[in-house]
Amino acid sequence: MNKKRLLYLDNLKVCLTVLVIFHHAGQAYGDGGDWAYHPSNPAEFMPWIWHFFSVNAAFFMGLFFLISGYFVPTSFDKQGVKVFVQKKLIRLGIPLLLMGGLISVLSGKPEIGHMWYIESLLVFCLIYALVRQFCKPFDGECSSKTTIISLLIFGGVMGIGSYFIRQVSPQDHWIWPFGIIPLPMEPAHYLQYVMMFVIGILARRFAWLEKMSNTTGALSLAIGCALALGIYLRDGGAWNDFVTEWFGIYESFLCVFICYGLLWLFRERGNWDSKFWQWCAAQSYGAYIFHLLLMIVLQYATDGIWMGAFGKFMFIGIITTICSFVLTWLVRLIPKAKKVL
Questions:
Q1: How far is the C-alpha of 27 from the C-alpha of 286, rounded, in Å?
Q2: pTM passes above 0.90
């Protein structure tokens, strides 16, 4: 079971990393918020791609936090607080300082870009280590398991909280807490990230992923895909107005159901153990770290080459993915680099 679990979660993280790269690849060619590169040709624009952004933003970083949280309890139990904290500071802190510092220098202002995820994950892990100094882990048997009802409750709590947060801090509004703490966060999604990290920890303690039935997993995936389709069907009218009004709740249900559906799908069908997938899994963390700067360089380098908006989007996404994974592999050949990447 341990081997199977590691395989399917590693493979899922690889797919999520590629999705993040393509998400960022599209931001220059659609309404994807502030981006360091803007095409000189106005024809390189895809008005439809905001649907792709909206669905991705609803779940993919939350799923990253859930998977990360899932591995935290076992790691802490095996290593103890001192080694656990040391390893997190090395594996998360060093890339954060190096890449965050480089991005800040290049942008001319305090800015860490996509490394906000690494910083938040480090903070969450350190908080977990602190809590464990006062709270012992649950070691007994637990008969609880994931059900559609429990997912509805989880999504509802997340959705109600997200709805009220967005009344004062809308989506895509990034802040530094209290205006001074260098922890960039988007309040509209941050409740989701905290809850998904915590649920990942609990899922490991109570074996919720292993005990999730095929019926629950398949139904969760179907509901999540239906909600994702609902985003793509937004195009003005009553449906668009409804989703817009209740988007914090809608998005939270989409997140919970599609995440658990994907976890089930990969648990049952994603245990690929070929050398290629093992290689990709080993490079996925570094690919996340390196991809942003590689992508922006590539976008500027190909600015004058006409491929059509969609063609440019796919080209940038594919080449950046390949280069990010290969660069990580090369960097990891450096002695002791594997301790960080």
A1: 21
A2: yes
Supply 66's token pair. Answer: 């859930």
The pLDDT tens digits of the residues spanning 306-337 come to 999 999 999 999 999 999 999 999 999 999 99
Residue-level length of the chain? 341
Cα separation, 232 vs 286, in Å, equals 31
DSSP assignment string, 25-37? HHHTTTT-S--S-
CB distance 73 to 137 below 8 Å? yes
Tokens found for residue 283:
């490079």
Q: At what angle do helices 50-88 and 187-206 cross, to 10 degrees?
A: 60
Task: Give the residue carrying structure tokens 């981006």.
Answer: 35
At 81, give phi and psi (nearest 5°): -65, -40
Query: How many Cβ atoms from other residues are within 10 Å of residue 16's Cβ?
Result: 20
> Which residue shows structure tokens 């179907």?
222
Q: Which residues of 252-267 are buried (b: 16+ CB within 10 A; e: fewer)?
A: bbbbbbbbbbbbbbbb
Domain range summary for the chain, segments of one domain joined by +: 1-45+274-341
Q: What's the one-letter identity of residue 21?
A: I
Residue 175, strand partner residues: 185
Q: pLDDT by residue (tens digit) across 5-37?
A: 579 999 999 999 999 999 999 999 997 667 889
- The 3-state DSSP class for residue 185 equals strand
Q: Rounded distance, CA 28 to CA 81, Å?
A: 42
- Give the separation between CA 69 and CA 65, rounded to whole angstroms: 6
Q: Which H/E stretch holds residue 68?
A: helix 50-88
Contact call for residues 13 and 69 (beta carbons, < 8 A): no
Q: Alpha carbon of 238 to those of 53, 170, 241, 243: distances in Å?
A: 21, 21, 5, 9
- Sequence-ordered list of residues with C-beta below 8 angstroms from that of 115, at least 6 positions apart, any chain: 95, 96, 99, 100, 103, 289
**Cα–Cα distance for residue pair 228/295, rounded to 1 Å:** 27
Whether 107 contacts 36, CB under 8 Å? yes
In whole angstroms, what is the distance from residue 227 CA to residue 245 CA?
15
Backbone angles phi, psi at 71, to 5 degrees: -90, -10
